[in-house]
Design a protein that fits this description.
Elements: E1 5-8, H1 12-27, E2 34-37, H2 45-48, E3 58-59, H3 63-66, H4 74-83, H5 86-95, E4 100-103, E5 107-110, H6 115-128, E6 132-134, E7 139-145, E8 152-157, E9 161-165, E10 167-170, H7 185-192, E11 197-203, E12 207-209, H8 231-236, E13 240-250, E14 253-264, E15 269-270, H9 271-286, E16 291-296, H10 303-319, H11 328-337, H12 345-351, E17 356-357, E18 364-365, H13 367-375, E19 377-384, E20 392-397, E21 415-417, H14 431-455
Helix pairs in contact: 1-6, 1-14, 4-14, 10-13
The structure holds flavin-adenine dinucleotide.
């Protein structure tokens, strides 16, 4: 089958590539055809699970602030961002009948809070504007027929199907959540054209503290999410902490510090501030470093003030007639109950046994030590959860070999590359989907514009 433009991968960037191409072709009443090939039975399976099923599809911060959340070469994304801004994405969805709203942190969601509504709307726009979407078509290989009139891409797909096109867009995504169809096929396709792939690794993922799992990490630090929890992991898993501070360091040097909310899960430490630190942490583990996290449960209080406060509280508890016969460990739990969520106490004491000194029956609490532990609960990190559950893939097709104004390959005319397949990754908060939308839209538009130019001489 021949189509003028073929897009491989019908995820966030692929759908926007189709919409971008059709936005150009519609204007000129062109008969040029656009086809999306998607290997899964439905397009955009990954987008369906974004934002915990609510789809935080963009972030409306202006470029200066938005770009601070891009972890790779920020300026590469700039032309694509201005070509399809977060406001334009909202406009596209709302014009197609999907009301959207901006919530805390400038994050945009559909009012319905249903990711499927975003997918259905984007898919609807693409097909209404003229794109053809073929599902259950897995691309296996690509070759090029060179001719003086321009190169033709030959695509071999599952079921002995074959396709050809004059413009090819690769939008096959990264490696995370392979069950959604993103299994990294595009790296192989891009490499065959000579593209350099910057080393890939999981980002926005759980960091696994030493002793959290009853299993050892692989050589590269990967520790599968499904590995069984240890008694420490069991004591902490499921606890969510608000307004705490987490600092990542390695070899005595602070790498980064974040304040906000974090979660202990079946994977390890994650949640918003855990995710923020995970990229650097995974990198460190993979490079053979010995990263460590320090959790400050009381970031709003200086250490000396906290120590004084603990002394006051301890005295108060000692004077309370209800606690007169209680042993020290029980009194300590009463004290900790005033300082942290109840469910955290057991895990806190297991991880910080030095707070209680002396032998049973003769125990005493070390308030200085307690202060230190509250301000700097140490979690040496031994591993990380991999692509099976990470949010995004860091690394990918090097942006040095892709033109930022068109997303066209510098190595192969007519080939465009977009989305997570590129070496672009961002923080959580709608930035990753916006990057996929903007690069996809620009790739689609550029492919259509160059074809029209070619045909009109
Ligand atoms: C759990 C989770 C939650 C997330 N939440 C958010 C969020 O709230 N906000 C946000 O901004 N980002 C979020 N992200 C990240 C975001 O989903 C991705 O960055 C984005 O989907 C990348 O878009 P893409 O088009 O590049 O790749 P994908 O969306 O992965 O699409 C790639 C498509 O290509 C298809 N494909 C692959 N190989 C082939 C082949 N050989 N032949 C045919 N088709 C193929 C795949 O099946 C897939 O449909 C989340 C990610 C995860 C995993």
């Amino acid at each position: 089958m021949y189509s003028d433009i073929i897009i491989i991968g019908g995820g966030a960037s692929g759908l926007l590539a189709a919409i971008g191409a059709e936005s150009i072709l519609m204007k000129s009443d062109s008969t040029l055809s656009v086809t999306v090939l998607e290997k899964m039975p439905r397009v955009a399976r990954k987008m369906m699970i974004t934002g915990k099923g609510r789809c935080n599809f963009t972030n409306v911060k202006p470029w200066e602030e938005f770009s601070a959340h891009i972890r790779t070469k920020k300026n590469f994304l700039r032309p694509a961002f201005y070509n399809l801004s977060p406001e334009s994405v909202i406009g596209l969805l709302e014009d197609a009948g999907l009301p959207c709203q901006v919530e805390r942190g400038d994050r945009a969601f559909p009012v319905s809070h249903r990711a499927s509504d975003v997918v259905d709307t984007l898919r609807g726009i693409a097909t209404r504007w003229g794109a053809r979407i073929e599902q259950n078509v897995e691309v296996k290989g690509i070759s090029v027929n060179r001719s003086s009139k321009g190169d033709i891409f030959m695509i071999a797909a599952s079921g002995s199907r074959s396709y050809s096109c004059r413009r090819l867009i690769l939008s096959t995504g990264g490696l995370s959540y392979p069950g959604t169809g993103s299994t990294g096929d595009g790296y192989r396709f891009a490499e065959a054209f000579g593209h350099k792939i910057t080393e890939c690794f999981p980002s926005l993922t759980a960091m696994v503290p030493k002793g959290y799992k009853d299993a050892s990490p692989e050589k590269n630090g990967h520790l599968d999410r499904s590995a069984p929890l240890s008694s420490i992991g069991k004591a902490l898993c499921g606890i969510q902490l608000k307004n705490v501070s987490l600092t990542l360091s390695s070899g005595g040097n602070t790498i980064a510090s974040e304040m906000g909310d974090m979660d202990f899960t079946d994977g390890g430490i994650e949640g918003p501030i855990g995710f923020s630190l995970s990229r650097d942490c995974v990198k460190s583990v993979r490079n053979g470093g010995k990263p460590s996290l320090s959790l400050d449960l009381k970031p709003a209080i200086e250490k000396d003030d906290l120590r004084e406060r603990l002394r006051g509280l301890w005295k108060e508890i000692g004077k309370d007639p209800r606690s007169s016969k209680m042993p020290i460990p029980a009194l300590t739990r009463v004290l900790l109950g005033k300082l942290m969520p109840r469910e955290l106490i057991q895990g806190f004491l297991i991880c910080n046994p030095e707070i209680l000194k002396g032998r049973k029956g003769n125990e005493r609490i070390d308030l200085d030590c307690l202060t230190d532990c509250l301000k700097g609960w140490a979690f040496p990190v031994e591993g990380y959860v991999g692509y099976e559950r990470c949010v995004v893939t860091a690394g990918g097709v090097s942006t040095d070999e892709v033109l930022p104004k068109t997303m066209e390959s510098r190595l192969q005319t007519g080939l465009h590359i977009c989305g997570e397949l590129l070496d672009i990754d961002c923080d959580t908060g709608g930035y990753n989907l916006q990057a996929a939308f903007s690069t996809g839209y620009l790739a689609g538009q550029s492919a259509a514009i160059s074809l029209e130019k070619e045909d009109n001489g």
